[in-house]
Amino acid sequence: MAPRCWRWWPWSAWRRARPPPAGSTPSFRQQFSTQEQPPQICVVGSGPAGFYTAQHLLKHHPRAHVDIYEKQLVPFGLVRFGVAPDHPEVKNVINTFTQTARSGRCAFRGNVVVGRDVAVPELQAAYHAVVLSYGAEDHQTLEIPGEELPGVFSARAFVGWYNGLPENRELAPDLSCDTAVILGQGNVALDVARILLTPPEYLEKTDITEAALGVLRQSRVKTVWIVGRRGPLQVAFTIKELREMIQLPGTRPILDPTDFLGLQDRIKEVPRPRKRLTELLLRTATERPGAEEAARQASASRTWGLRFFRSPQQVLPSPDGRRAAGIRLAVTRLEGVGEAARAVPTGDSEDLPCGLVLSSVGYKSRPIDPSVPFDSKRGVIPNMEGRVIDVPGLYCSGWVKRGPTGVIATTMTDSFLTGQMLLQDLKAGLLPLGPRPGYAAIEALLSSRGVRPVSFSDWEKLDAEEVSRGKGAGKPREKLLDPQEMLRLLGR
Fold first, then answer.
1. Other CB atoms closer than 10 Å to residue 149's CB: what's the count?
2. How far apart are alpha carbons 413 and 406 in whole angstroms?
3. Regarding beta strands 179-183 and 356-359, do their DSSP bridges make them parallel or antiparallel, or are they unpaired?
4. What is the pLDDT of residue 37?
5. Ordered DSSP codes for 294-313
6. Which of 136, 217, 229, 291 could form a disulfide with 363 if both were Cys (CB 3.0 to 4.6 A apart)?
7. What is the per-residue pLDDT for 31?
């Protein structure tokens, strides 16, 4: 899907030779000449966007060679570091990515930071095409007073902590408080709430890190509030995640029925997925549970709730000023209707005591290299259907292309489209002709700079070590957290 609003960007580089319609893609494999030079293609990022882009290129061009560069020592991006540990079925795409990486025409180059170890123009000089698929590695800040206090974390960092992202392994959140507040009402917010409230014994057989599990075992958090600026019709989470929260063992939901007044009539015209989600919210908020569910809720020791029409104003400090002790929320009302409705302050506010604040208001991409155009307001690389504006031969896919929205399947479709555009440009003669050295040139550069890339076979050694460490505890794996330990295991 093409990003919105790029009609304001000049794109003279592509204007003269619009490629044929997208429908022609399936026959590409037969159309490429066996006499042409094998295209050397570089993909930056080994998450879903990177792997799906590589998969499409390898499938639809019989001679293409793809190198996948990754700053971490290990592949798979947010599938490894973002998907919740109690959602193992979502991680099954790793099997598909592994098949791609094992192809004789694909190579994984881990432990290489593009923009630091090697510049994008250097990659462009070595490859026929470069695809930037490095995702959204930053988070949207709240920009409110008190955000810097101990006890305030981004949900992205918290997720990275319990999922074993090396840069977050020292996070050490203090869970000795009674109440946690999560700002934002998307799937990540519900993931974080669920992990905070799930009885630890239910997580023991997942791939959550042992360090995180130890902290969660000692947690005193009993109540989690999930706060949104708008109302029930605008929540960003999906019905699957909501159902998991409602059924979470040892917990009961707290929803204010007045937040749902008049909603029954308004949901008649909304799309079916939104309607089903809102109906489930309505039933949970307004209907008396059956005897079995009532008994389950009565015995619950933990609670969670959705607070609507509230916007964060300030994180409140403890009396000694040394940590977060609450959050001041502006009361809002909606202007407009449906998903386009905008929250505006009413002038009222309320204080909510809490010892932990987790900001889940969105991920954000960073610029990777001064040579690459970047829209800092939207946090994306300006592009037309994956072609970077005014930089022929440079492409993008995934969140850095369209923004941090959608699920893995959305990214798959998006990445296939970028791969399709690249192959159309190759066929139309819009990419460099003649041979390109590919990794041979980059390897020499990295070697001269003291950078030693990690291969996919290296990753498979680390993978075997993780699986072996997890086996004794009945876990699918115990993730390695320290890059230096990983390198030692590889004999570096």
1. 17
2. 11
3. parallel
4. 81
5. HHHHHT-SEEEEEE-SEEEE
6. 136
7. 58
Contacts of 180 (CB under 8 A, 6+ apart): 196, 221, 223, 224, 225, 354, 355, 356, 357, 358
Question: In Å, what is the CA distance from 322 to each residue of 315, 317, 331, 355, 491?
Answer: 12, 7, 27, 11, 44
Tell me how many degrees the CA angle 227-296-225 measures, rounded to the nearest 5: 10
Question: Which residues in the chain land under pLDDT 70?
Answer: 1-36
Residues contacting residue 105 through CB under 8 Å, at least 6 positions apart: 58, 63, 64, 65, 66
Of the candidates 23, 18, 66, the residue with the CA atom closest to the CA atom of residue 45: 66
The pLDDT tens digits of the residues spanning 114-172 come to: 999 999 999 999 999 999 999 999 999 999 999 999 999 999 999 999 999 999 999 98
Is 224 in contact with 196 (CB distance < 8 Å)?
A: yes
Tokens 């998307």: give the residue.
186
Q: Within a 13 Å sphere around the CA of 293, how many CA atoms are in the beta-carbon half?
A: 10
SS (H, E, C) 196-245: HHCCHHHCCCCCCCHHHHHHHHCCCCCEEEEECCCCHHHCCCCHHHHHHH
Structure tokens at 311: 């916007």
Two tokens, residue 115? 């923009």
- Inter-residue contact 284 to 255 (CB < 8 Å): yes
Task: Quote the pTM value.
Answer: 0.90
- Kindly state the DSSP code that residue 19 receives in the 8-state scheme: P
Q: Is the dihedral of CA 110, 135, 57, 129 positive or negative?
A: negative
Is 88 in contact with 209 (CB distance < 8 Å)?
no
pLDDT value at residue 251: 97
Q: Which residues pair with 372 in a beta bridge?
A: none
Closest listed residue to residue 354, CA positions, set 154, 171, 178, 198:
178
Extended strands (E) in 248-364: 251-254, 302-307, 310-317, 324-335, 342-353, 356-359, 363-364
> Among the residues of 287-438, which ranges form H helices?
291-298, 399-402, 408-427
- Measured N-to-C along each axis, helices 187-197 and 239-246 cross at an angle, to the nearest 10 degrees, of 20
Determine the Cα–Cα distance for residues 63 and 29; give it in Å rounded to an integer: 9
- At residue 182, the pLDDT reads 98
pLDDT in tens, 99-127: 999 999 999 999 999 999 999 999 999 99
Q: What is the pLDDT of residue 265?
A: 86
